[in-house]
Design brief:
Family: Belongs to the iron-sulfur cluster assembly SufBD family.
Structural class: mainly beta
Protein name: Fe-S cluster assembly protein SufD
Distance between the termini: 27 Å
Strand content: 35-45%
Helix content: 10-25%
Largest sheet: 19 strands, mixed
Pfam family, one: SUFBD_core
Number of helices: 4
Mean pLDDT: 88
Number of strands: 19
GO biological process, one term: iron-sulfur cluster assembly
Radius of gyration: 20 Å
Shape: globular
């Protein structure tokens, strides 16, 4: 198992099934953030932020040839009492506050959406039931924008469930007031031909807590870009991710935690399993600690389990530190094949091989699944993992 942890800048570890590297380049995009798609050149695949993405499978989202159709996606929100759900126009002041598009697809989504969905949890409201947002693809092309806003000291859990077939580019903004606590579970359970490219922006208020759990199973190509920044001090962000990449799928998760204020914390843990010919997973973990971000405490980790031949992982952790006055900063990346010793141990105790494989993979993901905190969602995801494993045997 190849591992990179606290590697000196510029060093790399490479293998037949994985690449782990460190660089300060990934936080430097080829164009500055902008809401205008015209400010971004059409990518050619040589740019740092696009070099792992098969552009020909983006269905025109990257070059402007994708045009929205009426049967793109339907968005339905189920919210507890006290939560405000609105459909607003482009001039709403909350849109874009959490972050600015950093690549051409995100800018295209911002330029092209007609109406945005805004979900607001009032200050000091503590929800005992989750907000559930269903995004269902109807077979067309869509551009969308969603905003989740929590007032000061509010607490909420939001589940965003993506299903069906679509070509979707969207931006999702999370606005956390001072002392607020938000957990977001974003599930990408698309049909086989779907294409989904999204930028997730979280702006964490003073002493606020943000937890993101990203789960990716389906789709032909899924490329997600979670980003976190801090509005003040005392904020904490936890970014968890789980992905199961099957034959022919491309799943890409590109994280950036921007420590732009002092005395904030972040922790990122993503785990993936891959199986089948040309299964390709990409994980980019960027942490930027700015010169004014004294007292930062951050860590990021990526683990990958390759179940069959023919799969590939690119895992790239990055740390860019502009001040030495920090509590701690570290990262780790590891990719390995299925552990035959674990399998032998279980089989020696009378457990059939396929059941032993299930137990190992479930154990690999258990830590992250437990972060969800919703039994119905957790059980659904564990069942989905077992379905994927069954497919590998069939």
């Amino acid at each position: 198992m190849a591992e990179a942890q606290n590697i000196p800048a510029g060093s790399t570890t490479a293998g037949a099934i994985a690449v782990a590297a460190e660089s300060t380049v990934a936080t430097r995009m080829s164009a500055p953030p902008s809401f205008d798609v015209a400010d971004f050149p059409v990518p050619h695949g040589r740019e740092e932020e696009w070099r792992f993405t098969p552009l020909e499978r983006l269905a025109g989202l990257h070059d402007g040839s994708a045009v929205a159709s009426g049967d793109g996606v339907k968005i339905a929100v189920e919210a507890p009492e006290g939560v405000t759900v609105e459909t607003v126009g482009r001039d709403d002041a909350r849109i874009g506050r959490a972050g600015t598009p950093v690549d051409r697809v995100a800018a295209q989504a911002y330029t092209s959406f007609e109406q945005a969905s805004v979900v607001t949890v009032p200050k000091e409201t503590v929800l005992t039931e989750p907000i559930r947002i269903a995004v269902h693809g109807e077979g067309g092309v869509a551009f969308a924008h969603q905003v989740i806003e929590l007032g000061a000291f509010a607490e909420a859990v939001v589940v965003i469930d993506h299903t069906g077939d679509a070509v979707l580019a969207d931006n999702v903004d999370y606005l956390l007031g001072d002392g607020a606590k938000l957990t977001v579970v974003s599930v990408q359970d698309w049909d086989d031909k779907a294409v989904h490219v999204a930028q997730h922006n979280a702006l964490v208020g003073r002493d606020a807590s943000f937890k993101s759990v990203v789960v990716t199973f389906g789709g032909d190509l899924v490329r997600l870009h979670p980003r976190v920044s801090y509005a003040a001090t005392g904020g904490e962000a936890e970014l968890f991710g789980l992905y199961f990449t099957d034959r022919g799928q491309h799943q890409e998760h590109r994280l950036l935690v921007d420590h732009n204020n002092p005395h904030n914390k972040s922790n990122a843990v993503y785990k993936g399993a891959l199986q089948g010919e040309n299964a390709h997973a990409v994980w980019i973990g960027d942490v930027l600690i700015r010169v004014n971000a004294e007292g930062t405490d951050t860590y990021e980790m990526n683990r990958n389990l390759v179940l069959t031949d023919g799969a590939r992982v690119d895992s790239v952790p990055n740390l860019e530190i502009e001040t030495g006055e920090i509590v701690g900063a570290g990262h780790a990346s590891a990719t390995g094949r299925f552990d035959d010793e674990q399998l032998f141990y279980l089989m020696a105790r009378g457990i059939p091989e396929q059941e032993a494989r299930r137990l190992v993979v479930r154990g690999f993901f258990a830590e992250l699944v437990q972060q969800i905190g919703l039994p119905d969602v957790e059980e659904r995801l564990l069942s989905k993992i077992e379905e994927e494993l069954e497919a590998s045997v069939a």
